[in-house]
Amino acid sequence: MKIKKFFYSLGITTSLYFYTNANAVDNQKIIPFIEYKNITITPADFRAALAGYPYQYREEIAQHTKQVNDIINHVFLYRVLAQEARDLKLEQDPEVQKQIQIAIETALGKARLNLLRQQALAKDPDYETLAKEQYQANKDQYQLPAQVEVAHIIIKPKEESEVAEKQASQLAEKVRTIALEKKQPFSDLALEYSQDPSVKENKGDVGWISKGDTVPSFEEAAFDLEKIGDISPVVKTKYGYHIISLKGRKPARLQSFTEVKDRLIQGIKTDYKEQITQQHIEAINKAKEVEVNYEAINEFIQSMKQKNKDSNS
């Protein structure tokens, strides 16, 4: 149990430190993540395992405690299982040897693609100019819709009946009348009357919404409000009866290049690296020296299908 406690108490801070400071760690005393008999799992093992994930997701993965711990635990578990397999001399099995060969080749192949991506970035195209060109050519993609910030109070019928509907509607009208008097904050009314399950946390605040974010009747009433503090008529939706208060309004606008520049450059870099790797892969696949025996492949597929059919009969 000592090892398990050590592992789970490690947390993400150490993991991220070693992930982001790989070169510095190599020259320092290595603090193991897990120790068990003659097996040790180190930051280098984590980095190696992380390299097996698509490169665009690695940084995000390394920022999540559970995912980091899951990866480290996976490496540990399979290292123990691998040692057990060696003790049983399973690596001498021809099929296992072939699997090991494929695993090595896959790792080397990924390393080659990673190098291609690094070399692509080293060529350092003018990403900002490319981003500006993309921005100018696709301005409609950077248009922000009109938004309103609203709060609401919802009154729900106690049951599915005409009487319950009428009672809920009448209570909603009463609450609206109180809200129109402006004698107390709308948030206080929400805390007192709203039947939204999350009202204690948000005090009726819905936040910013765009057209299409909510049900049509709620949306229409919200966007009809003009001045901050305006109160809507009672609005019926499938959820109940709403009283809506306007807290803010933003007109539709085009985002400036400065606002979207970093996102555009990141996207261009990702696309550029993928383009370089895909070109290399296509060059390999289209090389005239490559000879594919489709007849042999099809015969193999048919034999596998027949084998599966025989085993199930």
TrEMBL record:
KW Signal (keyword) present: yes
Keywords attached to this entry: Isomerase, Rotamase, Signal
Pfam (any one): Rotamase
Listed GO MF terms: peptidyl-prolyl cis-trans isomerase activity
InterPro entries on file: PPIase_dom_sf, PPIase_PpiC, PrsA_foldase
Domain PpiC: 145-248
Catalyzed reactions per annotation: [protein]-peptidylproline (omega=180) = [protein]-peptidylproline (omega=0)
Signal peptide span: none
PROSITE patterns from the UniProt entry: PPIC_PPIASE_2 (PS50198)
Protein family per UniProt: Belongs to the PpiC/parvulin rotamase family.
Protein name (record): peptidylprolyl isomerase
Species this protein is from: Candidatus Nitrosacidococcus tergens
Lineage: Bacteria, Pseudomonadati, Pseudomonadota, Gammaproteobacteria, Chromatiales
